[in-house]
Every structure is written in C-alpha cells, then in structure tokens.
C-alpha cells in the first residue's frame, strides 16, 4: 500500500510540473508613463491564462525580448494587475480577460530594434508558464 501511495504522489507531482504551451497572450502594447522616462507594458490575456496563473500561483515575469529571437536580449519585469502585484494572486477575472502591466525605463526599451513581450515563470508545485511572444508597439 505504501508503494502505491508513493507512486501516485510521484505521478501527480509530474502532472503538476507540466509546462503549458497553449497559454497565449491576446494583445500587448506599451504606453509612456507620466514622467516621460518610463514605459508601461500592457499584456492582455484570456481568462483561462489568468485563472491558471492565479490557481497554480505562478510567479512570473513580463519578459521583454528582441522579436524573433529566443532569449538573446531578455529583460524581465515585475507584473502588476489591478494596481497590485500579480504575485498576490487576489485579482478578479472577467470574461474579457486580465490586463497585466509592468514598468520599464524608457532607455531600456530604446535598446531594442523590435521589442516583443512574453509571460514566463513557474510555481512551487512545479507548474510552468511560457506564453507566445508578441510585438510591442507604442500607443
């Protein structure tokens, strides 16, 4: 019986540690901050992405990268949602999805020829998150 319990625990922990590659960013854009020295990155996700992050308590970053590359020039930023840290996991999810935001110095973004963004991170249960990469345009 003990052996069955151990095997079940190993199997379940393996399932929890899966990387979900079907989670997508719907829209992404950036705006200038009020100080004109900061860029605010906006990432809109579908409700299922936000729910996965909240329920699995995924600690993630909004990662700015050069479009078309695989991590050549990564700049991770802390995500916020509804004016609180996303890592608090106390945000509402409505049918249109959730908008995550982060701030970055304008000079950092200026170093990218074509900036893109993705969400990437993991949780204590082994759950992983890595979304698609979308271009960032100034609005």
Walkthrough of the structure:
This protein has 139 residues and is of the alpha+beta class. It has one domain (19-135): Immunoglobulin-like (Sandwich), CATH 2.60.40. The protein has three helices and eleven strands. It has helices at 2-16, 47-56, 106-110, and strands spanning 19-20, 25-32, 38-45, 59-66, 75-77, 80-81, 84-85, 98-105, 115-122, 128-130, 134-135. The strands form two sheets. Strands 1, 4, 5, 9, 10 and 11 form a six-stranded mixed beta sheet that branches. A hairpin with a 2-residue loop joins strand 6 and strand 7. It starts with a helix and ends with a strand. The model is unreliable at 3-16 (pLDDT under 50).
Topology summary:
Layout: H1 2-16, E1 19-20, E2 25-32, E3 38-45, H2 47-56, E4 59-66, E5 75-77, E6 80-81, E7 84-85, E8 98-105, H3 106-110, E9 115-122, E10 128-130, E11 134-135
Parallel strand pairs: 1-10
Antiparallel strand pairs: 2-3, 3-8, 4-5, 4-9, 6-7, 6-8, 9-10, 9-11
Name the poorly predicted regions: 3-16
Distance between the termini: 61 Å
Backbone CA Rg: 17 Å
Series of H and E elements: HEEEHEEEEEHEEE
Structural class: alpha+beta
Largest sheet: 6 strands, mixed
Question: Quick gist of this model?
Answer:
Helix content is 22%, strand content 39%. With 139 residues, it is an alpha+beta fold. The protein is globular and about 35 Å long.
